[in-house]
């Protein structure tokens, strides 16, 4: 059985005095345990809405969402979220930010510290434990955000364009770091991106969404062996996947522009 299941999900926004928007239309999706699933699609197709539903920050107009067979009703620490914008507590140090989740679970302080130190080392930020977010670069802040999300030991990690605001070099470093952490921790990940290279490099499966109202147009298993890294980007298999996804996305971008 898959870990996450979305069945016939539709979301319709009806803002007062404005036209109603169908953001998602009959979306069904399943994410297997310990796999890395990526969603790509044109701007406005409902990717963030889909992730917010799984996070429990939004409710579907119709359809059901379950995690391990249980209905998702509201946010929970079993679903960790990393956004594009930096969402660290500015008044807390790196270590305190990472310890925040475990401390809410009333774990002993020494246990929270051990969890934080292990994750700070996994995201390669040793030496910055006492720094405040304002003293860090964008890439470093996203490493803290990743460590903070992992500190709750979530069942699934939800990532909404987490590297979207980073320059391409930092983005490459972050992708490799995420792959390394994922290889060792084997978390289930649902990841959103505009970047096709990123989708193929990271994903076990890439779901291409259609222009609004968003539907899953194609789900493509990425059968490129792991570990993957910079060499993967120039392999023939990678190029073939890229051509397929670019062509699917191109059709949708045109549909979106005409909508
Ligand atoms: N709270 C809301 N009220 C009204 N409309 C909304 C709301 N949230 C999202 N929408 C609309 O739903 C559609 C999907 O938005 P969403 O942010 O999920 O798209 P997206 O694919 O993540 O876009 P992008 O890639 O540009 O970030 C858009 O047309 C958006 O304007």
TrEMBL record:
Top-level taxonomic group: Bacteria
Cited InterPro entries: AAA+_ATPase, ABC_transporter-like_ATP-bd, ABC_transporter-like_CS, ABC_transporter_ATP-bind, P-loop_NTPase
The ABC transporter domain, residue ranges: 4-236
Signal peptide: none
Entry annotated with the keyword ATP-binding: yes
Alphabetized CDD domains for the sequence: ABC_NrtD_SsuB_transporters
Record GO terms (molecular function): ATP binding
Keyword annotations from UniProtKB, A to Z: ATP-binding, Nucleotide-binding, Transport
Pfam families cross-referenced by the UniProt entry: ABC_tran (PF00005)
Nucleotide-binding in keyword set: yes
Protein family (similarity comment): Belongs to the ABC transporter superfamily.
Name used for this protein in its record: NitT/TauT family transport system ATP-binding protein
Species assigned in the record: Rhizobium halophytocola
